[in-house]
Every structure is written in structure tokens, then in C-alpha cells.
Amino acid sequence: MKFSEAWLREWVNPEITRDALIHQITMAGLEVDEVIPVAGKFTKVIVGEVVECGPHPNADKLQVTKINVGYDQLIDIVCGAKNCRLGLKVAVAVVGAVLPGDFEIKEAELRGQPSSGMLCSESELGMSENSDGILELPQAAPVGTCVHKLLHLDDIIIDVDLTANRADCLGIAGLAREVGVLNSVSVTEPTWENAAVTLSEQVALNVQAPDACPRYLGRVIRGINQQAKTPLWMVEKLRRCGVRSVDAVVDITQYVLLEFGHPMHAFDLDKLEGGIEVRLAQVDEKLTLLDGKKVNLNSDTLVIADSQKALAIAGIFGGLDSGVSKGTTNIFLESAFFAPLAIAGRARSYGLHTDASHRYERGVDPVLQTKAMERATQLLVSICGGEVGPITEAYSDQHIPTQATITLRRSKLDRLIGISIDSDRVTTILTQLGCDVNLTTEGWDIIAPSYRFDMEIEEDLIEEVARVYGYDNIPNVAPLASLIMASHNEARLKLSKVRDVLVGREYQEAITYSFVDPDKQLKLHPEADALILPNPISKDMSAMRVSLWTGLLESVSKNQKRQQNRVRLFETGLRFTKDENAENGIRQEEMLSAVIVGDLNDEHWDIATRPVDFFDLKADLQALLDLCADASSFEFKAEQHSALHPGQSAGIYRDGKNIGYIGTLHPSLSKPFALNGSVIVFEIELAHISTRKLPSAGDISKYPANHRDLAFVVDEQLNAGNILKFIEEIGGTQLVGINLFDVYQGQGVEKGKKSLAIGLILQDTTRTLEEQEIADNVTKIVEAVSNKFNASLRD
């Protein structure tokens, strides 16, 4: 929200400096993002009047003027602006003036004509980017007056970053209330005399969705002059709030929006057919918006319509066919309260974000409609003329938001703030905030003001008291607490240890959003029934993730687009799945996911590199699983997954329970995610690797270890892990080590077969093994493997 300091001080003017005001607003929770001068630095720019204006004899696009600036003689100035005309009051930079950018005005001659100054545009004075013509000053501006003083250009623009709960401050009135409360200064609202009603004409109202629109006001105004020029004072106030002047009618509705925080809309009365209806959009109903964009309306969208067609998306954007244009003479003025839930998310669904939707989504004061209507009418009649009809109102009392009644306990106030604030001071603060306050024996009973949608519970009031009292005024006292040594569970595997292992293997930790693109997620997990957000940040962030892969793959794509071809990322976070038996029907599980793509090593003169493969990621995962010190409980089984290559994927099991998957991303998914190269991923449930087997100490055998190597020829589809696990089971106590050290296919091995070279270590802790014992053990293993897996020893 941008606003002018000068406009704010018209409402409330505490005796504090500009810097103090900015600091005060920030400390009150309305963070000041930026402070901007309303104009550049310039000197010797004064009000002049065009006394003569004629074509330049030697240039078609220039004019020769004589300007009265209050000197003894008129000054000659050559000007190229199309809007320069006789009698116009202008901003004149006389000889010796210095404009923004240290541009000095000197005597000059343009195409043979003398020019002793310059007629300035807004951009030349650093007021805006508008360079379309010279600045037109009010006709009442005295000749020779300093333009800087005339337009109050010592003002500043304050840009405040408001949180979503402070919709009451999306207007000068709300900001003035805040500053008034912070300084215990009264607020002076502008006063006006309501326009006289001279017409009896009314437009019938039919509100078919009173829950979405509990209050709707309308008024007919006939005979306006749409060509009337918006006064400079209004144009300047709009500009200083970041709003561009369009035409008088639009400017006035925008002015009321900025003044009171209440959106309004004007329809061309002559384009309406029948009465006004407030209803939900019909099936396949279409609307062309004011910006020319054509939209297909959703059935949950509230619209303003006449008897034949939709006219506008309620509280969001007007329609082109019913909008005010240069030829408009009669208007229907709208002032309404739309329920926040009826507007929230609708603008984003059409790719829109407007000042109106921004306010209605957060909540507009439901009692402000009449005041806004009268203010807009008064301004319209004073600027554009016209005859005014009575206000027509549709009102649903049962759907209007009720003001919250809250009990504030003294005990809780003191406990949460940490100090005891005098009861009279608390009462004063709450009263100044607009609350109806009743002091009780235990605290206060409060009725929140209609414009404070964020006051709902006791904690809200405590926050308000602390905020207005001043966080700076609350002493910094450390709370007393006892120190208790926490118990340490050695079997618990800390997440930090998991992170350390992955970081040590050159991974970088990523943090991605929990809400993802539903279309991309569906490609990875077509069977998943994801939770869809009713009010998403954007369409491509509208589903809760069922896996961390979606976010990680998008991160890989972004890195590759920035020429980072070797990517190794991991992430820990929650996945969300529907479960009727879980709390609120949602099961949340903490997952660990990782992804690698690109070369195995960074390019180096001494190291030959290659693209990563399935086994590189499996090795990294195995290093993690080794933290559990229970290797025998883990198993990899060849399994298919919708997101993975059917021949390069495996399920991860612990004690027979599936805890995740690992594999190469399915080639068909590379294009949707804009990925290059072979992408390898894994994901496991953290809960299943959060415990580790505690190590137990034992004597190191002083007797020699015996190494034997066996090469089994088996079917190429056979999982080597199954053989290793089987050998461990039958090997007995003397088998102390086993290792797969080679896999071979080729000459000497039958097609469709593969050779698995397995190293065995046999040792006893009490004696030296005899050669015959070793041979017997090896023979037992060979025979068992041969029978179990139809294997044979390689020659």
C-alpha cells in the first residue's frame, strides 16, 4: 500500500518528525518497505501563463509561445508539446533553473527562434514517467508561484508492506486511525455535503446469492460530463499512491478506494438491460473484461449481471460491454460488501489481481457502503455534474458478518506480555482501536469494530495492546527456567547425521514447496489421489505433494537451464496423503529423497569421468543405510514404479516392509520436466531409518582369516543380493565376511547368463581353521547356491 505523507497528515497530524513517523508505523507492525520522494530535485520552476501560442515558422512540430511568469516582460519559449494552448497555466523552468539530472536551462535558439526557458512535463520534473505533454496546472494558480510549493512536492511516498490480516489499513482512513491511536491524536475525517437527490429513478436489485453478497447498494446518476478533466489535486494524490489517472469517473472510484479502502464500480446505465442481478455464473457463461481479455466463467464465480448477461466479475473486474467510456452520460454506481470467501482465489483462477480483489479477499468494512457511495456521488457531481437518484439497497442481515465479542483476561494479558500494563491504559488503547469496551472484575469484555476482521480471539487483543503500548516499551527480562538434562537415546539416528553423510558425498540440501503442480505430479504418480488446495498461490502450486520427487526434479531442471550439468540434491520433508484413519483425514510422513544427474566426478586431468548410473546412487543410499548398523535388515527387490525405468528400479525393504524406491527416472518424463541426461532418484520413509542397532564390542580374532573366491554363473535376471543374503544365512559362524567384487558377461559365459565373483572370509575366534574345514564350508555353500539358484561354478 503506497500513500502520501501529506495526504495522511490531512487526516491526522501528530507532532512528530517524518523519520519518527516512519519508524513508528514500522514498529506498529505496518512495515515500511520504501520511502520515495514525490518529485526530483529542481530549482527555479515557477507558474506561468501562456499568453501567446503560434506555429513555429521553421518547424512543423514546434510552437512559439510568449509566457507570463510575473516578470516585467513576457518571455519567449519554443515548445513541442501538443497540449500547449492559449491561457494554459504551466510549469516554467526559467533561465538558470536546474532540473533533475543536473540539467541547467540556458538561453537558446531553436530553428531560428529564441527560447528563454522550458515548459516542463511531469517526467522532466521527476514526478512520473509521463512525458506526454506539458504539466497542466490549476487555472487558479498564481503566476510566478514556485511550483514546488504549489504542488507540495516536499511530500514523500511511503510504501507499506501490509500483512493479510490488516485489510483495514488498505486506505488512508485506516492508516490514519492507526497513527491516531499510536499518538493519542484525534483523526479528522474529510467532511462533505451529500449530493441532493433530484431523480426518482432506481434500478431493481435481485441478489440471488446473499451469503456471498449480503449488502449491495446502487444509484443512478444521469447527465454526467465524462469529458470533464480530473482535478490536479486528485491526479496527484492518485499518483502518489501508485495509481495512474484514467478518466474522471474511474479516478473518482479509485480515489474513494484509496481514501476509505472500499472498492466501487461504475456501469454505463444505457448498456444495462433490466435490473441488476448478483448471482453465480451460469454454465458456459462468458465475459469480456475491461482489458479485452475473454474468460469462461466458472460456476463458483460471483457475477454482477443484468437480465440478459454477465456484466462484471463481482469484486474483481468489470466487463468491457458495460464499462464507462468517453461517450457515457448516465451511470449506475455500485457499492457492495462481498464475503471474503466468495472472492478469495477467484481472481487468481482467471490470472487476475486487482486492487478490488486484494481488498475484498481480506475483508472490507460491511458498514462502509453508504459512506463510500455518498462520497463518490459528491465527487462525481462536483467534477462531472449530473443528476442523482436515490440509493437502492439489498440487505441480508443474517449473512452480514457479526462483530466478534471477546473476553480479555487480565491474568493472560500479563502472562503473555510479561509485564502488567495499567488497566486504564489498556482500556484507552482498546477504545482508541474502535472497540466497545466493558471493564469486568477479571478483565475486559470487548466487541471488536466492524472493520477489524482479524480480531477474533483473546490473543488478538493481547497483540493489539502490546503493539500500541509499544514493543520498545516492554522491558527485556529473561524468563526464569530450570535446566533439566534431557535423556539421550543412543539407538535414535539423528537427522543431522543423515544430512552429514549426504553432504559428505557431495550432495546439496534443497528445500522445495509442499504444494506442487498437479499435472506434473500426476505424471510421476498417476495412482495418487492428491489433496487439492481450495485457495492456491497459483495454479501450478495447487496440489499437496505425495512425494518429494516433483519439487526436486523441477530444481534439477532449473539448475540445468543455468548450465549446471552435474547436480546432486537431497531433501527431507513431509508428504501428504489422504487417510480416513488419520487426523483430519490426512497422513503426513517425513521422507528423504535424493536425485543425481550428470557426471560422476567434476572434470579433472587425473580422473576419467563417466555419467552417473543406478549403482552410484545405490552406493550413496547404502552408505546411509549403514548408519543403522543393521545391514541384514535391508533388502533391494527389483520392482516397477510408475515414475521409474521398468528395467532400472527397485523397491527398498526393511524387515520385509517396503520403505521406498530407487531407480532411473522413466525416459518419458524427461520432456515434461525439461530434463537432460539420465536422472537417478530414490525416496525412503525416514521413520524406518531413524533407529540404529547399537554396536557391541567383541574380541578381534588372533587367528588367521582365510579368503576364498567363488565365481557363480547364474541367470542374468537373478538379483545378486538374493545370493549374498542366502550365503550369509547358511554360512555359519565361521563366515565373517562376504563381498561381491565382480560381475561379468561376455566371452566364456553363456548368453543369458552372468558371472558373479564373490569373496568369502572364514575365520574362528578360538582356533586356526583346518584346510579341510574350510573346504567343507566352501563346498556346502557351493552346493546350496547351486541347488537354490540353479547356479554353476565358472571354469
Automatic annotation (TrEMBL):
Mg(2+) binds at residues 454, 460, 463-464. This is Phenylalanine--tRNA ligase beta subunit. GO terms for cellular component: phenylalanine-tRNA ligase complex. The keyword Glycoprotein does not apply. Residues 401-476 form the B5 domain. Keywords: Aminoacyl-tRNA synthetase, ATP-binding, Cytoplasm, Ligase, Magnesium, Metal-binding, Nucleotide-binding, Protein biosynthesis, RNA-binding, tRNA-binding. Its cofactor is Mg(2+). It comes from the Bacteria. Residues 39-148 form the TRNA-binding domain. PANTHER family: PHENYLALANINE--TRNA LIGASE BETA SUBUNIT, PHENYLALANYL-TRNA SYNTHETASE BETA CHAIN AND LEUCINE-RICH REPEAT-CONTAINING PROTEIN 47. SMART domains: B3_4 (SM00873), B5 (SM00874), FDX-ACB (SM00896). Coiled coil: none annotated. The keyword Cell division does not apply. Belongs to the phenylalanyl-tRNA synthetase beta subunit family. Type 1 subfamily. It comes from Psychromonas ingrahamii (strain DSM 17664 / CCUG 51855 / 37). Binds 2 magnesium ions per tetramer.
